[in-house]
Write a structure and sequence with these properties.
about 270 residues, Purple Acid Phosphatase, chain A, domain 2, 6-stranded mixed beta sheet, 8 helices, Pesterase_MJ0912, Calcineurin-like_PHP_lpxH, Metallo-depent_PP-like, Calcineurin-like phosphoesterase family protein
Length: about 270
């Protein structure tokens, strides 16, 4: 496992995940958080229209990034996104549309950058020590949800601390839903993603700001109509383009029941 030291950060730090090839959202995030330190939990590329441009923008910004499963898979030239979806689920079927487009868009330079990303980062802020991962330390694409059993969080905390030593908190991503939990004295922070809304019926996406041990989840407004149009121009019309406007995932079956908008009948 490759570990990166992101150093000591003074003042607030913006935490974000999943730019998801959404150039407009990435531009808006960087403009809104200008002047703040920022750290990304991975999946710079995914569903959106502008994988290459989004990678270039994140690289140009010089932000610390930990590898998401999408980076690891694209770097290898793998045939699928490695997102951890169940075979035959809506996410699995829809990924056969967007993943090849993201793979094709990333040239050798982008893939080399992805291959060099760390699996985990550590940083200090206000006398507290944090680790940054994508999904889980035990598995990069592990889904940890707001409602996941406390034991799942404990397993990941133990796995993180086995590698980097004691931490006060863990910053994670992957599931696409911003939340925070306190488990065994550790602060688990999922920063959410900026590339898709969190299945709440609104087009705004999410990121988090960590300051003095406290986390505030922020809404990100951006040119979602432009991002949608870009996806349509690229033929990326499996359903995620509509999510940018209506805020509803076409892959609801990946979600826990309590997050689904129609608990008894997931959308396909």
């Amino acid at each position: 496992m490759r570990i990166a030291d992101f150093g000591r950060i003074s003042g607030p730090v913006a935490l974000f995940g999943g730019p998801y090839s959404n150039l407009q959202a990435t531009e808006a995030f960087l403009a809104e958080t200008r002047g703040l330190a920022a750290i990304c939990t991975g999946d710079v590329v995914a569903y959106g229209a502008d994988a290459a441009a989004t990678v270039a923008l994140v690289r140009e910004a010089g932000l610390p990034v930990v590898a998401g499963n999408c980076e690891r898979q694209v770097a290898r030239g793998a045939e699928d996104c490695g997102c951890g979806f169940e075979t035959g689920s809506a996410c699995d079927l829809l990924s056969r549309g967007w993943y090849p487009a993201a793979l094709e868009a990333c040239d050798e330079t982008a893939r080399a950058w992805m291959a060099d990303l760390p699996d985990m980062g550590v940083f200090e802020q206000d006398g507290r020590r944090y680790a940054v991962i994508h999904g889980g330390a035990t598995e990069i694409s592990r889904f940890i949800w707001p409602s996941s059993p406390e034991g799942h969080f404990a397993e990941e905390i133990q796995a993180v601390e086995a590698v980097v030593g004691p931490v006060d908190g863990i910053v994670a991503g992957h599931c696409g839903i911003a939340f925070q939990r306190r488990v065994a004295g550790r602060h688990w922070i999922n920063a959410g993603v900026i590339g898709l809304p969190p299945h709440d019926g609104r087009p705004e996406t999410r990121y988090a700001v960590l300051d003095a041990g406290e986390v505030v989840v922020q809404r990100l407004s951006y040119d979602h109509t432009g991002a949608l149009a870009a996806m349509e121009r690229k033929g990326l019309t499996q359903g995620y383009e509509l999510t940018l406007a209506n805020g509803i995932w076409p892959s609801e079956d990946v979600l826990p029941e309590e997050i689904r908008r129609q608990p008894s009948a997931a959308k396909g």
